Amino acid sequence: LPAVVDSFRFSNVTLATISVGACEIVRTRQQAHSETGFVKLIWRLSGALQVDQDGRTCILEAAQVAVCDTSRPYRIRLLEKTSFFILMLPYENFPNWESMQARVCGRKLAEGAITQAAFGALATLANFSSDAIKADGDIVVRAVQWMISTTFHKNCGDVDEAVPTDGRIGRARRFILSHISDPDLSVDAVAAALCMSRRS
Fold it and tell me: Which residue, 47, 76, 104, 111, has fewest beta-carbon neighbours within 10 Å?
């Protein structure tokens, strides 16, 4: 099946732009071992695209993104000539991935300014030459990763209803989630915001 693929690797992250005719991409349990340990984000650019994982199905419209965990079977159906981005990041790029995966895999991420900004950054990056992408791509992809991490946490806002919303733990949780995309977020920053020692 003829396909046009442009692929780039930035340290432990892979970005690909793919354009292909109607087909099905099926990842079985046996094949999943070759990609194990990655979060796969699929952004539709044009055409018709459907993502299935864990008994859930989502159909993407333009600029919408779906999520797959590569360690488990999934299917991507392209119902006509379709163009899309694939962004693959290792689990360790998303703290608490194990607790989030059941809420985001096989589903569309919530739309909003953050998701659209991430998509816009990737779309802009894809329009540059290979040399420009190699020079600046790592920074752009890191920014997209922070935005996606924030979106994951927004999608999973009620994933742990047992965590209190008041008191120190609740305040710490709210502060962390509201600053999750900040690369300078640290234990010291959380301690300072809550007026407590690092050890506490």
Answer: 111
